Amino acid sequence: MTDSTNNGGASGLTHFDATGAAVMVDVSAKDVTERVAIAEARVRMAPETLVVVRRGDARKGDVIGIARLAGIMGAKRTADLIPLCHPLPLQSVTVDIEPDDALPGLVIRATARVTARTGVEMEALTAASVAGLTVYDMLKAIDRGMTIEAVRLIEKRGGRSGHWTAPSLIPEP
């Protein structure tokens, strides 16, 4: 039997125990702090598809409203979807979805908050991803060529590593 309790403690966090077997990281030595993560995804679609979304004419209903709800629900299920991810008592999850004519498509931004021993980056990334997948599902009958892209962490606050912000996708002039 493998000793899965020795996986590095707070100073050497790893998903492997002393024998190399995969384990959930032991975060018990870490401080409980407020942690916030913001993730983004983009759904690129045909201009005509974006018009359907803006008008609210999709056959399956309110694309933005349903995708927002799906993203929130997805964040709450992150530990069920990502192996070895800690289940977290989320304090809040928001999913904002804005049309962007320049893509054309939708920009999804998900924010997850928790006071815990580990961060919420995966919850924010899951929320953005699930919202994007929901947009695709709701519109695939009219635009199978949509892409879900640029899923990434935008910002993370709290915890031992402090504050981090991603560089912009748009180059500075």
TrEMBL record:
Pathway: Cofactor biosynthesis; molybdopterin biosynthesis
Molybdopterin cofactor biosynthesis C (MoaC) domain mapped to chain residues: 24-159
Residue intervals passing through the bilayer: none
Annotated Pfam families: MoaC
Family annotation (InterPro entries): MoaC, MoaC_bact/euk, MoaC_sf, MoCo_biosynth_MoaA/MoaC, Mopterin_CF_biosynth-C_dom
This enzyme's EC code(s): 4.6.1.17
Positions annotated to bind substrate: 84-86, 122-123
Sample GO molecular function, one term: cyclic pyranopterin monophosphate synthase activity
Top-rank taxon: Bacteria
Keywords: Lyase, Molybdenum cofactor biosynthesis
Active-site residues annotated for this sequence: 137
Signal peptide: none
Top-level EC class as recorded in UniProt: lyase
Catalytic activity annotation: (8S)-3',8-cyclo-7,8-dihydroguanosine 5'-triphosphate = cyclic pyranopterin phosphate + diphosphate
Family that this chain belongs to: Belongs to the MoaC family.
Stored NCBIfam families: moaC, PRK09364.1
Subunit note: Homohexamer; trimer of dimers.
Main function: Catalyzes the conversion of (8S)-3',8-cyclo-7,8-dihydroguanosine 5'-triphosphate to cyclic pyranopterin monophosphate (cPMP).
Name used for this protein in its record: Cyclic pyranopterin monophosphate synthase
Annotated source species: Tistrella arctica
